[in-house]
Amino acid sequence: MSEQELILANRLRKRFKHFSKWARRQNISCFRIYDHDIPEFPVIADYYEGKVALWISDRTRDDSEEARQAFRQEAIRQTLLGLDLDENNLFVKDRRPGGQYRRRSRDKHEFIVHEGGHSFLINLSDYHDTGLFLDHRRTRALVASQSQGKKVLNLFCYTGSFTVYTSAAGATSTVSVDLSGRYLDWLERNLQLNGLQDKANTLVEDDVVCWLEDAVRDGEHFDLIICDPPTFSNSKMTADIFEVGKDHVKLIENCLKLLYPGGKLYFSTNKRNFTMQEIDYPNMSWKEITPQTVSPDFENSKAHRCWLFELS
Ligand SMILES: C[S@@+](CC[C@H](N)C(=O)[O-])C[C@H]1O[C@@H](n2cnc3c(N)ncnc32)[C@H](O)[C@@H]1O
Description:
Helix content is 30%, strand content 27%. By secondary structure, the chain is of the alpha/beta class. It folds into two domains: 1-132, Transcription Regulator spoIIAA (2-Layer Sandwich), CATH 3.30.750; 134-311, Rossmann fold (3-Layer(aba) Sandwich).
């Protein structure tokens, strides 16, 4: 095959060389290598300390199963070649629209990676996602830098990367809420891994929307809130379908009701074409801080947008 035809392999090689240099200088060991850079190769490749997760999207032009499989095989072949990777270190995932978390059917492949001086359990075989969303690396550091002596609330906490960061940075307490017991178990293991199991960290298995209503009614308060909802959620455990596009105003208002004066809310979404509605709340100021929270390896990704709401 000619050099010209190894277009994905060549791009991956070049980007990996560039970002691994940058990552070494920053003491970063997990980073994004590639995200839909070349339209003929709609894939994402993330690097986790020697292993690579590869999400492959279907191309509209591949209208038969045979064509889809041929494209997948080609993407895999070029990834192995471009990154000079052993196939045991490549974990291929489907990237289907809908965004729900699907359990996958390969043998369990769990290992530990490091970020910001903390350790996180990664699972590259069993879920659509890996256990650590790399695009929020800077957001985690930012929030942690403000959490010493603070009461922290982590909503839609997933495997608790924000909980680990803030608890380790000296938060007096954290509360982490997620619908999924499985992710909360994972969070618990991340806390243990970081020696934080005896700190005041409360894990709550609940629908955030309902939990917030109760917390507001009970007069609970926090200094720092992280709210990073999914674009869409229709779990059987929730009363209503949640859609960030239409439900974010109520969600943010309820978070603001839980803040002490001087408190901060970090709100983030990975919904494409998200429009933040006008939010009118007493003594509140807000601004988009996405340029501060996106690192160089995600600059072309549009992986998330992030806002800071502050009460005076
Ligand atoms: C985008 S992930 C959050 C990522 C997390 N903030 C992080 O940085 O690691 C979305 C999470 O929301 C949870 N979730 C979805 N719908 C929910 C709901 N209605 N209430 C509580 N958790 C929900 C999912 O189980 C998943 O863990």
